[in-house]
């Protein structure tokens, strides 16, 4: 009797594990991969209260290249203030190799130093043997050196606070930025690619295993209780 109960419970457990494994495959086969490109701004000033906006843009000459939400004419622009960080998010849905340029477009003013660096992003999307869309993202500087994060450093060299002026590029839409009021740069990880959905599948797998284990323990306790009553 005990052997039959254990076999029955084992069959239920194996069936549930197989079902959940199928669910994990479904999550992983979703043909959309999210690419996150971190960009940070460093601003130096000996004068307090400087809060100018600095403008940036990401462009591509490929009409089929995925672009962030809010892009126009294959261009995505945003602004940042002080020490800040943001992430450019791309939803890659088709295989291919896509190229982007990222640089600063702030209108120059006196007593400011602007970072004129230009960065190049290559997104290589392909299907693996399981027909899952995978992405490799490479970011390089003007020297062709691979980097993990895009960074621009601007500074104000004046001795007095400048008179308030209008934003440098008011016609350009502002993208999402994450400014830190304390002047510290929020932590930004390296370029991220991939889909977090498999994590949910593993959680379901663990949850199902715990349920089966609970059933097994309950049946064992029930059986032990019945045996004790028979002996009494």
TrEMBL record:
Disordered, as annotated region: 151-192
Keyword Transmembrane helix (UniProt): yes
Keyword Methyltransferase applies: no
Range of residues in the leader sequence: 1-28
Parts of the chain that traverse the membrane: 199-217
This protein's UniProt keywords: Membrane, Signal, Transmembrane, Transmembrane helix
InterPro entries linked: Strep_pil_isopept_link, Strep_pil_link_sf
Biased composition, class Low complexity, residue ranges: 166-179
Domain of life: Bacteria
Protein name: Streptococcal pilin isopeptide linkage domain
Source organism per UniProt: Fusicatenibacter saccharivorans
